[in-house]
Amino acid sequence: MRNAYYQKQEVTIEFDCRFTVKVLECSLSEIIKAFCSFLPNLLTDFIMKVLLGYAEYVMSLKNKPFSCEICGNNHYFIWKTRHGKTTRILTIFQWVVLHQLQVQCSSCKHKFYLTRKLLGIEPMKRIPEQTRRKLGLIGSLASFRVARKIISMFGWTIDKMTLWRAVQETGKEIDFNLDPDELAHGEADGTGIPIQGIKNRGKELKVFVQHKKGGGIRVAGVDIGNYHGGWKRLFEPVIEIMKGFKTFLLVTDGDTTILDSLKGKVKVLFQRCLWHIPHQLKFTLWKDKVKRKSGDWLYLLAEIMEICAIRPLVDDLDVIKSMVKSKTERLAKLILFCKDKGYRMSAEYLENARPDLFTAISNRLNGKSTSRVERLMRTVNLRINVGKWSTSGALNATKIRLAYYYNGFDA
Ligand SMILES: [Zn+2]
Description:
This protein is of the alpha+beta class.
């Protein structure tokens, strides 16, 4: 228990350090090698001496920075031992074994260890949160092999399991949501990721990003689920904050039925991701057995590219109206063409996309209809493509990575 009335003060602790070093030659590499072999003892000694010096200082104060967890006394204690049972703690420089400092409460005779109270780390935990978060960040930014290699250059080793667990626990603590102070624009998109025991890229990672006032994006939601499913879990947490916006422009090709519950509370404007449309059309044309690069194929692709290309910075409402009208007509022609030729899948796809193609431009929310999630997905894949993941493993590593790159997370 910490004493809330304790006033922090700078304490000077001095100590001398004696060491014996044996080297064959005085090259820098030899000296660094000697230092690395020295580090565990040096660090342990350093922590112990600072800890003890500080403990002696606070024991001399009337008002202690800690209090008895039984009776609440924070004035009168006596030393039991300065060299008690050992405790192992992981620092970012490796494990240290510390002798515990023990005191006794003068009023209720309760004995307790001071070490972790003074160090500000949780009881029983061998890996303090501050170390765990740093290892979690390292393990999400680089593959475990690379992380171990880099760590080994600083003179110590860490096992893969410790790194993996640090990633899992750190990832679990990270939650995303909309920021009510940022823009009422967002994009949601999915990408296939490899999961252990599932063929190919068997699961879909779904990401919801919010556009920021100063440009750029932040992550507002992440989930991993089956293809075409799981969109509900992605949007569910953001509904409350979304209600605070008058209108929200959502660019997505995902299933947004969960947002129907917002009807009457927020006007959600849906915009199909224009970047995806030509890509999707290639896929439906393949399903319709239209030969790649044939006359029909080229005509349809070229047309859809032009329909989906929106020039930024068109600001005149009349120009916009006339542009949308012309694009809508061209699209109708394209759908008819597909129907006439019997390209059923492609006709159906374009028909479905039609109502939400020009929402952004019609509402003068220009330039927000092209995907910025693509790059984000590449950032995710750089890590996820290395190694075999379970669903939760991949999700946690992705959460840390995204929080670090887009939301200012730091360990
Ligand atoms: Zn007590």
